[in-house]
Design a protein that fits this description.
166 residues; alpha/beta; 2 domains; six-stranded mixed sheet; four-stranded mixed sheet
Length: 166
């Protein structure tokens, strides 16, 4: 093998090795039932029921939330989304342009509620010390254990309030 071909082989091998390392480091974790969530949860574009799972965070801090992953195109609704709307009727914040409806809600400590993103792009929601990235037309089922008035923000701006009672 001449020197030019050897250099090409080394460069290609290094590129392949670099890609493999990148793919392994950035590979989403496989969700599992009853797995504890990470601090920054992402709601992705697949239909999946999971209890508190994440696809992007590397923190191992336990969370107290359940995450429901789905994607729904405008004008359509998946069975999971429709079921979530029924299950969490009365415990739902719906967001359009990062504006929540309703603007406040009272829940018991640990009560689950729905964050419903009706925009076509993802938003980052924060409540009770936890952050959730919800895909466009996606939703997350979360709960808060931090007693008192908790601000619910969308992309860092104030949007609603969750009052958590014992």
């Amino acid at each position: 093998m001449n020197k030019k071909n050897l250099i090409i082989v080394i460069v290609v091998a290094a590129a392949v090795l670099g890609y493999i390392i990148y793919a392994v480091i950035n590979r989403p974790s496989a969700p599992a039932q009853n797995e504890e969530a990470q601090t920054d949860d992402t709601v992705a574009s697949t239909t999946l029921d999971a209890v508190a799972t994440t696809t992007v965070a590397t923190s191992t801090k336990p969370a107290t939330t359940a995450v429901k992953k789905t994607i729904t195109q405008p004008g359509t609704a998946s069975k999971g989304y429709t079921d979530a709307l029924k299950t969490y009727a009365g415990y739902k914040f719906q967001f359009v342009n990062c504006r929540a409806t309703p603007t406040s809600m009272v829940v018991k400590k640990g009560q689950r509620f729905l964050l419903d993103n009706r925009d076509n792009r993802s938003h980052k929601f924060a409540v009770g010390g936890r952050t959730y990235t919800v895909a466009g037309y996606g939703y997350a089922i979360v709960s808060s254990y931090q007693l008192g008035a908790n601000n619910l923000t969308c992309d860092g701006g104030g949007s609603a309030r969750v009052n958590v009672e014992p």
